Amino acid sequence: MKIGILGGGQLAAMMAQAGAPLGMDFVFLDPAADACAGHHGQLLVDDWASAPERTELAACDRLTCDFENVSAEVLEALAERQTVRPAPSAFAAAQDRLTEKQLFEELEIPLAPFAAVDSRPELLAALERIGYPAVLKTRRFGYDGKGQAVLRGPEDLEPAWAALGGNSLVLEGWVPFEHECALTAVRSASGEVRFYPPSWTLHADGILRVTLAPGRLPEPTVTEAQARLKRLLDHLDYVGCLTLELFAADSGLLANEFAPRVHNSAHWTIEGAETSQFENHLRAVADLPLGSTAARGESIMLNWIGALPSIERLLEVPGLSWHDYRKQARPGRKVGHATIVAADRDQLIERVETVKSRLDRQWAPWLDRALGALG
Amino acid sequence: MKIGILGGGQLAAMMAQAGAPLGMDFVFLDPAADACAGHHGQLLVDDWASAPERTELAACDRLTCDFENVSAEVLEALAERQTVRPAPSAFAAAQDRLTEKQLFEELEIPLAPFAAVDSRPELLAALERIGYPAVLKTRRFGYDGKGQAVLRGPEDLEPAWAALGGNSLVLEGWVPFEHECALTAVRSASGEVRFYPPSWTLHADGILRVTLAPGRLPEPTVTEAQARLKRLLDHLDYVGCLTLELFAADSGLLANEFAPRVHNSAHWTIEGAETSQFENHLRAVADLPLGSTAARGESIMLNWIGALPSIERLLEVPGLSWHDYRKQARPGRKVGHATIVAADRDQLIERVETVKSRLDRQWAPWLDRALGALG
């Protein structure tokens, strides 16, 4: 079985690491010559638009993506001749924040109030309706907090418009949330859906820093969130893993956005679940039976942003698994992560305390938040 | 960190899979152009004897082996200019069954009676002393039951001598054992030793078929076996993982042989231990801190010999992880394995029953033996 992946970043690399023991070979397409998945298969260095002409991709049994902004047109051209999973329509829906929010509304998935903004008068009208604070975001190509401006009050309006005006935008009401969380599911071509336990997530500067899994949410809340996510998956006739990011607000869970691919918030599943998201995505894509999504113990995942911390000091922590993406260090770049798995909550707390004593102090407030959630 | 591995089989491949997330690159030397580790790094196709001349190996930060019969002379030549772990002396000791047994004796590690046999009169004298049943084995290059003949009584003497006479041999007393087991340890360059839980192993036709881990042995027996293995590791100033195979006899554990490398009986550690044998071997070789060797739940490993069974039926079993070595099917060849991990013994029994119903019936007696050991 040969799998072609559009995108050659760490998500593609981790898919290849999960797929090799299943007997799969991988081909990656990425515009960057140093794309890190190149360590795990054949790397084609080319523009996304070249995909339909590349014979190496045409020779693959299945195509999938590690990147959600591959143009839906390119994916549709590929889907005309071979199996692309998930289908291009899922990308089209996720690539535009307005379409995405309208889809949530249509499927009765609760979310914060929002409005399309294409002009300054529309922004003023939207603020009138939604009120401050609010977040102005580009409809397309935003990720990890890029293309966003928070409007705390009227004084933030001009700088935000100067930065983002001219793009197609969406204004979102600011949700006062207790914490963020993520729900990852895998769906097979026959429509079977399995859910990973929801996770507790912590972002800083728009980038995920910490995931705890399983997160602690009341059972009825989880059941309801799963039903909503299932409506989305079924609507898209989705095949593979998908993550829905949510705000845990007073009024319940509110959808933020979804990613039609494997997702950073579910990296903990490599060591912390019976089957990882990467393996389950590939199983779905390749028409193999889905694997168990049950958690194995209690996990915390820490994202290494910009540069790796000292491996020597951290590998001494029991239950810690290291993931070096082999990317060049650069501010704001995801260059690796670590997951610590423990048998139970008390052991996890002890291990997190050890990690905290060995990490740079920028980590202290984030790990204190996590320890508070583990409580 | 670049690691060179002499040998490019599945053990090398699984080392590379464990090392990639640690940021390691791999170069393999193997005489076979289709050596399966080639999927995971640069494969040099050449004789073992070429190793000292290959600049790609000279450029490695560390060298190790996935194969115990690389000549100690070649390893010594390499060790003169770079770090080879474990040291060549460990290979020299393991490559000759007579040296190996004499070393066990010297270190007061109990084993079955044995005698060197280089001629027919020596064989008769050895049989006089040891008695029937006994096993005649070549001193060198035996593995997976090859180069062996069982002598149940005088009628087996002539055929065994016809098959093996002319080689340097060793006669071993036949040990009536309840079961076989294996003890794997990892030792760092600073002398720290960590033990994996001992496993219960089942062989058929000289080839490992099933491992259960943790195996059930009385605590004093385990402590004593660990002390013996530590004497061996310290004597060899060993760096990396080593497995000691043992017979559980009425008189206690008797040493069979040791392997100066990662070992088939510890494949369960990939999913079933906090740190796999492959990662811990590399951590030791690369002077990184050793990882926890604690078990995660209860595991069973099944070896796929000759050909892979149907992946579709087996991936439905919860907690089952598949390992396709991507080797051509051939009778007697190890082409893959699967490990099933469960939270506890009852869940493992249930999962083994499910697997049994989905495998060819040659598996029934082996799995019944395993269920008996679990029971």
Automatic annotation (TrEMBL), chains A, B:
GO process terms (BP): 'de novo' IMP biosynthetic process
UniProt pathway annotation: Purine metabolism; IMP biosynthesis via de novo pathway; 5-amino-1-(5-phospho-D-ribosyl)imidazole-4-carboxylate from 5-amino-1-(5-phospho-D-ribosyl)imidazole (N5-CAIR route): step 1/2
A matching Pfam family: RS_preATP-grasp-like
Stretches of the chain forming a coiled coil according to its record: none
Matches recorded under Gene3D superfamilies: 3.40.50.20, ATP-grasp fold, A domain, ATP-grasp fold, B domain
Class of the enzyme per the UniProt entry, highest EC level: ligase
Catalysed reaction, written as an equation: 5-amino-1-(5-phospho-beta-D-ribosyl)imidazole + hydrogencarbonate + ATP = 5-carboxyamino-1-(5-phospho-D-ribosyl)imidazole + ADP + phosphate + 2 H(+)
Superkingdom of the organism of origin: Bacteria
NCBIfam families cross-referenced by the UniProt entry: PRK06019.1-5 (NF004679), purK (TIGR01161)
Protein family according to the UniProt entry: Belongs to the PurK/PurT family.
Subunit and partners: Homodimer.
Protein name stated in the entry: N5-carboxyaminoimidazole ribonucleotide synthase
Organism: Wenzhouxiangella marina
Gene expressing this chain: purK
